[in-house]
Design a protein that fits this description.
Layout: E1 9-13, H1 16-19, H2 60-74, E2 78-82, H3 85-88, H4 99-114, E3 118-124, H5 130-136, H6 143-159, E4 165-169, H7 179-183, H8 194-218, E5 223-230, E6 233-235, H9 240-262, H10 267-275, H11 284-292, E7 297-302, E8 306-308, E9 317-318, E10 325-326, H12 342-356, E11 360-364, E12 374-376, E13 379-381, H13 385-403, E14 408-414, E15 434-436, E16 448-450, H14 452-462
Parallel strand pairs: 1-2, 1-14, 2-3, 3-4, 4-5, 5-7, 6-8, 7-11, 11-14
Antiparallel strand pairs: 9-10, 12-13, 15-16
The chain binds 6-O-phosphono-beta-D-galactopyranose (BGP).
């Protein structure tokens, strides 16, 4: 018997800069991703360089129809993609949008509609127009709020009747850890003042509220969600100091949900700002905007959990999604060192539901792994049992959370088709049900092949979760 609601939105997730390619086609301007050939692992380059896999990515810009048909073959109910801001406003501060860019997403939506797939659209996913970064220092500058609002209004006016679910900023809390990628901030992280960093965060939060307000005016049937990078933080020991340390670390993520859902800065957040000597400029008008334009639902990514301790001598740190955390000795890790914790997903779902009482949408979860393309019965494929196990185990925990009474709207696996990774800009870190023949050195035919997990996920969707192995 399936525990999943009948209208559960099964699907997959992507982001424009990681799949589209065509980085300068159709009037598109440059984005920060064009000067980040190696993700967040090295400083930005002054100009775009040829070693940037994202320039072509997996060529979704030209192959979207075939790719969406493959998603439909798996039975996707929803497809999460992002709109490249610099396709719509090539510089970011113009007053008129680029029609060719808008028309591209019309065509993508046509394909979704043809297959009965509900689009789930991220307005800004790690690709601030480069001009806004270089001229304004990205989200540090208050002017970005207006540019983003104009962009969001264009999207709601154009697609508001076709797109029901919108996310304002991908993993908004990651600005604190990846100021360039997440906040379009040109000032190198080690030279950025805390006040500027938190001002950038504040500006994004205000922009998110303004987008929600605009959606209510221009697309009344739309639902707007925030998107948070979730990473549960467990105390390394039962020592109360460790428990408090874990809570304090976890609140650096939870604050973003608190603000989006409750419409105000929580006391613990204000205390932390003042202890860090941060002086924010917040107007009364902005306070009112936050309060009056809270989100309809909360979406989040989930890949890893971490631990925390107050005891410096026990702080053994390892990689997490975009920021590190204390290793949990009870967990195994992926090839990239991200610790795998299916139960953590049930914990997050329960915690968020208890805390916010808003419908939850898991919009990213998946396993990045090195896949081996093999030939079986004359067909090229990947026997990715490890991915099936990872997804199965996480989905079982989603089912548990549903049984716990948590309201879960849907689940979109990250990188439903292989794509360029965000943190390290590699193609060899594969997440997809569909293998894309392209390698880290840029070679490959770009042909698509179904992995073993393709049929597995199709059956999970067809059976509405009943086929999962408990
Ligand atoms: C999230 C991002 C995605 C994505 C994913 C996996 O942080 O929202 O864009 O890429 O993580 O991370 P990576 O690509 O670094 O493996």
């Amino acid at each position: 018997m399936s525990r999943f609601p009948d209208d559960f939105l099964w699907g997959g997730a992507t982001a424009a800069n990681q799949i589209e390619g065509a980085y300068n086609a159709g009037g598109k301007g440059l984005s920060i991703q064009d000067v980040m050939p190696h993700g967040v692992t090295t400083p930005r380059t002054p100009l775009p360089t040829d070693d940037n896999l994202k320039q072509i990515a997996i060529d979704f810009y030209h192959r979207y129809a075939d790719d969406i048909a493959l998603f439909a073959e798996m039975g996707f109910k929803t497809f999460r993609f992002s709109i490249a801001w610099s396709r719509i406003f090539p510089l970011g501060d113009e007053t008129e949008p680029n029609e060719e860019g808008l028309a591209f997403y019309d065509r993508v939506l046509d394909e979704c509609e043809k297959h009965g797939i509900e689009p789930l659209v991220t307005i800004s996913h790690y690709e601030t127009p480069l001009h806004l970064t270089e001229k304004y220092d990205g989200w540090v500058n208050h002017d970005l709020i207006g540019f983003y609002e104009r962009y969001a209004r264009v999207l709601f006016a154009r697609y508001g009747t076709r797109v029901k679910y919108w996310l304002t900023f991908n993993e908004i809390n990651s600005v604190l850890h990846s100021p360039l990628m997440s906040g379009g901030i040109n000032t190198p992280a080690d030279q950025l003042s805390k006040t500027d960093l938190y001002q950038a965060v504040h500006n994004e939060l205000v922009a998110s509220a303004l987008a929600t307000k605009a959606a209510r005016e221009l697309a009344p049937s739309a639902q707007v969600g925030c998107m948070i990078l979730s990473m549960p933080v467990y105390p390394l020991s039962p020592d109360p100091d460790d428990v408090m340390a874990a809570l304090t670390t976890e609140r650096t993520n939870l604050a973003f949900g608190d603000i989006h859902v409750r419409g105000e800065y929580p006391g613990y957040y204000l205390r932390s700002l003042s202890e860090q000597g941060v002086n924010l400029v917040i107007t009364d008008e902005e306070r009112a905007l936050l309060k009056e334009n809270t989100v309809d639902f909360v979406s989040f990514s989930y890949y890893v959990s971490v631990a925390e301790t107050a005891d410096e001598s026990k702080r053994v740190v390892g990689p997490g999604n975009l920021f590190p955390g204390v290793r949990n000795p009870t967990l195994k890790a992926s090839e990239w060192g991200w610790q795998i914790d299916p139960v953590g997903l049930r914990i997050v779902l329960n915690q968020f539901w208890d805390r916010w009482q808003k419908p939850l949408f898991i919009v990213e979860n998946g396993l990045g792994a090195r896949d081996q393309l093999v030939e079986i019965d004359g067909q090229k494929t990947v026997v990715d049992d490890y991915r099936i196990v990872y997804l199965n185990d996480h989905l079982v925990q989603v089912g548990e959370a549903v049984a716990d009474g948590v309201s879960v709207m849907g689940y979109t696996t990250w990188g439903c088709i292989d794509l360029v990774s965000a943190s390290t800009a590699e193609l060899s870190k594969r997440y997809g049900f569909i293998y894309v023949d392209r390698n880290d050195d840029g070679t490959g035919s770009l042909d698509r092949y179904k992995k073993k997990s393709f049929d597995w996920y199709a059956e999970v969707i067809r059976s509405n979760g009943a086929s999962l192995t408990q």
